[in-house]
Each structure stands twice: as structure tokens, then as C-alpha cells.
Design goal:
The complex is a heterodimer. By secondary structure, chain A is an all-alpha fold. Chain A contains eleven helices and no strands. Chain B is globular, with a radius of gyration of 20 Å. Chain B contains nine helices and no strands. The chains are: A mainly alpha, B mainly alpha. At the A-B interface, helix 1 and helix 2 of A face helix 2, helix 3, helix 4, helix 5 and helix 6 of B.
């Protein structure tokens, strides 16, 4: 305990007043007795605890994510081949997932994990970056639609991306899963499974901000869900933004709520 | 030789009950003080201290061995207070069996007289401490009472080092000026006893 010089690294240590310091330190002099409930808890559970590294906690959720993504890539029907652009987008999503694992499981030198502002930053950045990935998911436009837009006021750079996406995404015209609803449901189920495993592994490890940890876990699981869907070669931007993005957004909200209840010690 | 808190925590994680008892004896007063500073209610602070240690016991597998104990325990205590505070805000007021409003929470007990402050000054200090904004009081408590570093206090509160430094500085200045004003009044009374009495 360094009561003598707690402001040693402060900008203005000259503000210390020894009289105030001693009086404040004296506030901790009151002895406290253990309650019967605490004594009972100690009697009932005194088993030694094996040290658990953050790496060990990560193993199960990572395996679950891998199984989900690889399984989906193999089992889901495809609407087309994966282009180099789509591989790049998959890599971007995988990176977001890896960052999410770090945000949830990194403990830091104090054992308290990342500061909440970094976790919330991850959540916000993921939501924005996911939309960027979605906008980048532009397929070659269908001929009739392309012809239709030549006479309209849509900028040429936007042709075949957002506007086609609105049409295809809302109609579900090229969806091998049968429509945006099915995509969103499938991604949400994957995200729920992976998220549950993440939250289970991270249980009682977040005394500072369980909400931000839960939201990070939810977003990370949602990104895994979106990645699993991405492998089936989606064809338009709005479909990816809405149907594939639903698990990410839901993950953030549900993760924050569930995290608050389950992650705090 | 006294074992460090980290050594005690590790021994406790390995199933040594004596280590927990020693750990409790050493840090429970500090946790209680932190919770008292946050809640300003002695009875509630005592209850929350017990809950904090129950949580610590249940979550001991989440403790990162070798990491400083106080920031971790302080973070659990802070979380416990926030949860209780939220629950209290949600709960409805319960009447006693006689249909009357319950007794208001007791005033915090004054700190033990210690150091070179007299009883009067100590009362002023405690009153000023209680009147501080919660965030300033918390920063001062973590730095000056718990003896944590700026980094540790920032990690516990989820804030930045700069913000903690500023809050603690403002709180400290408030205490200093309160004590200074007290001293000035006392000095002027000593210098002009008749004038003061005449005014009264």
C-alpha cells in the first residue's frame, strides 16, 4: 500500500497535505467481521482453483466459431463462386472476430481487462466497418436493371450496388437460403451459439464493465454469424447490410443485456 | 514477515482458508471504507462489503494470478455498489408492519481521530468528503484512502488517468479549502475574540 505518495505520478504533487492524507487513511481503520453467509460459503467450497489462462478460455469459443464458419461454407447452398473481393471481405470479418476475442478475453496487467471505452469503441467500429464491408459487396448488376438506371439520376459509381441491393435485398431474388429472413435467422442462430460459449467462458471475469464485455462478445459472435453466411456468396449490398448485419446488431444489444447479468462477479 | 496480498490471494486460490482470513482482515476495512465513501451509509457499506467478499469467493477462479489484488477487489466492490444502487432505484419503498415509513438510513460514522487534525477538523473533513460529487469522492477514496495508483484507479472506474487526476485534485482542493476556511475562522476568533463575541 502506497498511502504516503499516491500522487507521486500526478502532475502536481505539491498539493499533498500530510494532515489530510493521514486523516483520510484513518478511515480504513475500522475492523470488519466475516458474516455467517461468508463463513458458510467458505466452508462449503474450499476446493483449490486451477489457474486458467486467457488462452484456455478462448479455445472453446474459437473452436465453435471455426466449426460454424467451415460447416456453413460446406453445407450452405451457394449462389456463386467466391471472388477475390469476397475473400478480402471474409478476411476483414475474420479480423473483426479476432479483435472481438481480444476485447473480451484480454485481461491486462491489472487483471481487469480492456478499458470499457476500448470495448465500446470496438462495438461501434465493428458496426460501422461491417456496413463498409456490406457496401463493398457489390455484384455485377443484372442487365435489365442496369439498362433501367441509365436514364435515372443515380450516380454511375452507385449503379449496381446500393440500388440493386435495395431491389434484390428486399425481394430476396438471388438468395440461395430463400430470402433475407432465413439468412438473418441462420446467422442469428450461429451467433447465439457462439455468443453463449463466449459468455460462458468469460463468466465472472469482468468486474469493471460487464455491459461492454457482453456487447463485445455479442458483436464478435454476430460477426462470426455474418462470416458463416458470407461464405455462401451473397450478391448484393443491402441484403448483406440488413440480413447478414442483423446478427451483429442483435449481438451488440443482447450481449450488453446478458453480459450485465452474467459477466460481473 | 508479512505476506503480500498477491501471495495471500494465490494461497487462498489454492484452498488455504487461513490465507483468506488474513486477506479479509487486511483488505475488508479498505473495501468497507470505499463502499462507505460511495454509499454514505454505514449499514449498507457493511452489507455490501460482505457481498463483495462473497462475490470474490465465487469468482476467485477469474482472478489472474500475480495481478494486484486491490484493483480487482475494488472493481468488484464498485460493481457491487452500482448493482445495489440500481436495484434500490428500481425498488419501491416498503412500509413497516405498523404502516409507517422506514427509518432513514443512519448517518455515516465519523472516522477515527488520527493524525494532526482535531475532532472539529475531522468532522469538517468528513462532512466535506460526504458533500463531494460521487466521482470526485470515489477518485479521492481510491487514490488517498486505498492507496492505489492513478492507473489502477482509472482501470477500476473505467476512466482515464487524466480524468482521475482532475477529479482527485478538485476533491483534494475542496478538502483543503474547507479545512483552510475552518482554520481561518479559528484564527480570526483567536485574534479578535471580543469582536466575534460582539457580533454574536
Amino acid at each position: 500500500m502506497s498511502v504516503e505518495k499516491p500522487f507521486a505520478d500526478a502532475a502536481n504533487p505539491s498539493t499533498d497535505d500530510p494532515r489530510i492524507d493521514r486523516a483520510l487513511a484513518a478511515r480504513t481503520r475500522r475492523p470488519v467481521a466475516m458474516s455467517p453467509a461468508l463463513l458458510d460459503a467458505l466452508d462449503q467450497d474450499r476446493a483449490p482453483i486451477a489457474p486458467t489462462s486467457a488462452l484456455r478460455r478462448v479455445v472453446v469459443p474459437v473452436l465453435a466459431a471455426l466449426v460454424a464458419v467451415v460447416g456453413s461454407a460446406v453445407l450452405l447452398p451457394r449462389s456463386g463462386e467466391m471472388t477475390p473481393g469476397m475473400w478480402a471481405q471474409s478476411l476483414a470479418l475474420a479480423s473483426l472476430g479476432a479483435l472481438g476475442l481480444y476485447a473480451v478475453f484480454a485481461r491486462g496487467p491489472l487483471g481487469l481487462g480492456l478499458a470499457p471505452r476500448w470495448r465500446w469503441g470496438y462495438v461501434a467500429a465493428s458496426l460501422v466497418l461491417f456496413q463498409a464491408v456490406a457496401l463493398g459487396t457489390a455484384s455485377a448488376p443484372n442487365e435489365p436493371q442496369n439498362t433501367r438506371k441509365q436514364n435515372g439520376s443515380v450516380p454511375r459509381a452507385m449503379e449496381g450496388t446500393v440500388t440493386d441491393g435495395v431491389h434484390q435485398g428486399t425481394m430476396g431474388a438471388t438468395e440461395p437460403l430463400g430470402g433475407p429472413g432465413q439468412c438473418a435467422s441462420y446467422g442469428t442462430i450461429i451467433a447465439a451459439l457462439v455468443g453463449a460459449m463466449m459468455l460462458r467462458s468469460a463468466r465472472r471475469t469482468s468486474p469493471v464493465s460487464p455491459e461492454s464485455t457482453g456487447a463485445s462478445a455479442g458483436v464478435c459472435a454476430g460477426v462470426v454469424g455474418a462470416l458463416a453466411l458470407h461464405a455462401h456468396a451473397p450478391t448484393d449490398a443491402v441484403h448483406v447490410a440488413l440480413a447478414h448485419g442483423a446478427p451483429v446488431l442483435l449481438g451488440a444489444v443482447v450481449g450488453a443485456v446478458v453480459g450485465r447479468r452474467t459477466l460481473a462477479p | 514477515m508479512e505476506r503480500s496480498l498477491e501471495t495471500l490471494m494465490e494461497a487462498y486460490c489454492n484452498g488455504d482458508r487461513k490465507a483468506f482470513e488474513e486477506l479479509f482482515a487486511r483488505i475488508a476495512p479498505r473495501v468497507s471504507s470505499l463502499l462507505l465513501a460511495m454509499s454514505r451509509d454505514r449499514a449498507l457499506a457493511d452489507d455490501l462489503t460482505q457481498i463483495t467478499f462473497l462475490k470474490l469467493h465465487r469468482a476467485r477462479d477469474a482472478y489472474q494470478r500475480g495481478a494486484p489484488v486491490m484493483p480487482w477487489v475494488s472493481a468488484i466492490a464498485r460493481r457491487t455498489f452500482l448493482d445495489a444502487h440500481r436495484a434500490k432505484r428500481r425498488s419501491r419503498l416498503t412500509l413497516t408492519n405498523e404502516g409507517e415509513l422506514p427509518e432513514p438510513p443512519p448517518e455515516p460514522v465519523e472516522g477515527d481521530a488520527f493524525g494532526s487534525l482535531n475532532d472539529d477538523e475531522l468532522k469538517t473533513l468528513n462532512a466535506t468528503m460526504d458533500a463531494l460529487p460521487p466521482q470526485q469522492r470515489e477518485a479521492l477514496e481510491l487514490l488517498k484512502v486505498q492507496g492505489l495508483s492513478l492507473k489502477e484507479a482509472a482501470a477500476i472506474t473505467g476512466s482515464t488517468v487524466g480524468a482521475i487526476k482532475l477529479r482527485a485534485h478538485r476533491a483534494y482542493e475542496a478538502l483543503r479549502s474547507a479545512l483552510g476556511a475552518k482554520a481561518t475562522v479559528a484564527e480570526s476568533k483567536e485574534a479578535h475574540p471580543k469582536t466575534s463575541e460582539g457580533d454574536a
